[in-house]
Amino acid sequence: MSVNVRIPTILRTYTGGQSEVAAEGATLSEVIADLEKNHTGIAARVLDDEGKLRRFVNVYVNDDDVRFEQGLDTVTPDGAGISIIPAVAGG
Amino acid sequence: MPVQTIASTASVELGPAAALSCRECGERFDLGPIFACTSCFGPLEIAYELPQGDPEELRRRIEAGPESIWRYAPLLPVPADVAGKPNLNPGFTKLVKADNLARELGVTGELFVKDDSGNPTHSFKDRVVAIAVEAARAFGFTTLSCSSTGNLAGAVGAAAARAGLRSCVFIPHDLEQGKVVMAAVYGGELVGIEGNYDAVNRFCSELIGDPLGEGWGFVNVNLRPYYAEGSKTLAYEICEQLGWRLPDQIVIPIASGSQLTKIDKGLQELIALGLVEDRPYKIFGAQAEGCSPVSAAFKAGHDVVRPVKPDTIAKSLAIGNPADGPYVLDIARRTGGAVEDVTDEQIVDAIKLLARTEGIFAETAGGVTVGVTRKLIEAGVLDPSLTTVVLNTGDGLKTLDAVAPTTGPTATIRPSLDAFRDAGLAL
Fold first, then answer.
1. ipTM of the complex
2. Do B307 and A65 make contact, defined as CB atoms within 8 angstroms?
3. InterPro entries under this entry (chain A) (predicted)?
4. Rounded to an integer, what distance in angstroms lies between the CA atom of residue B47 and that of residue B44?
């Protein structure tokens, strides 16, 4: 499955400044592993030491927050848009 | 290529602010329009070089300052001459001794309402935005923006107008009419997004990383470390207005959780500076049942917050994915406080109770704090014999929809004395 991943500003040092990159994978876990192959170091920024999503990172597959889905096991259909976004406070 | 840094940060003059520091891993960064740690995504906050020396002298200096948040400028990330710049001068709102409400709730100690509806755009958001405006000026931004549940939109629109900045703010498309009008009247761009607040927030986060958002200061995104510090002034004011002492218990509403964490930070700073006596205080968080992810995590003993999809009349608190939720849990547990929630019906009852007893018309968030206070007293969690401060963070005129269905004229009569008598209204 080929997907497009939107990269937040603070991770663009790993993607040569690109704001969007292509990746392969049938689940979010596989997509992150594929990102790591091409952009070494990026996985450790998104995942903690136990391999879980860091608590201040939000990831969306299409429009769905993966915390409402299956987390890292969320299915990533062919052509899906994935966004990695730092959590922000509001009001 | 980073698109956000448009001014050299070497010359940034923001008073005692020395650097940005990651709240999760402690990594430090130069002052700039950044909000997340490049190592762990943790939130960045201001590291200070706070004034040293005689607390009495600092206290006198504060007391001689303007009747606004700028009296605390030595403790905030703002230039020393901030009070002379065009801004809305928010803060120093009333701390109301609520004896009638105390009797009604069975409080035998002192009960106060910190009434932030008295700010220029009628919510506590004027405090945080005023700080963000100074950061926007320092970093050379020309457009002020935000994602908002309503109150912030109005505060940004007004502050930008006064400061001579362009504004463009984003709100969920289905907000209360009062908040939409209040946000639009200041003449900036107001954009309704088809989705809830979390969707608006996500949109803004993406906009900020795109060339489309270049040169924009998002008060609660890339200016958030500065913006959030404005909530510390609630802690400073409460203590000063109590005669430079800590309250025993404070009840604070939770949306993102930022306000509660910064009030705690403000209290800790006052202790460290010797401005108040170091004694225990308890912090209580208040949510609406229809959006209570932090309350649910507190009750379940969890230290992380599972996001929810909000469904409550308390729209200013309807943040389903509260970024500072984990810190709220830490603070409530550390201080011996709690996090509790109330139903929409209890919120409306509490709004009416506060209005009826103290003449304060609170927005729904104020109904949440008063409702939770009542619930915690009844449950024996909040001690009624101590000094308690309850926050009202906004004006009821903004959320008329919440009380309108159950509030109206006692009677409608012909203009005659007979009709008045017949209606049973003569005392």
1. 0.82
2. yes
3. Beta-grasp_dom_sf, Mopterin_synth/thiamin_S_b, Sulfur_Carrier/Prot_Modifier, ThiS/MoaD-like
4. 9
